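We close this part of the discussion by returning to an individual protein. The sequence in question and its structure tokens are set out directly beneath this paragraph:
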Amino acid sequence: MAESIVALRKLIDAIDEKIVGLLNERAQIALKIKERKTLEGVSLHDGEREEEIIRHVKAVNRGPLSSRAIEHLFRVIIEHMHELSKERPKSG
């Protein structure tokens, strides 16, 4: 018996929740890297590292998403990590 659309959507919802959690975990680590780079006086932007990330995620992609889609998604993630690192720390 085929799974119902409702059941499949619940699976997608659960996966989406995991993705949100992983993105926030990634953001926390990115902020730690920002702190470390600031302390060490190193430039926050590292284009070489960004391209390394893109190459890596495309290499591990097994589909059905295309490499182009994976690259686009990760470029958006990286862009938002840059924005996060530019934000001032929230007090409180």
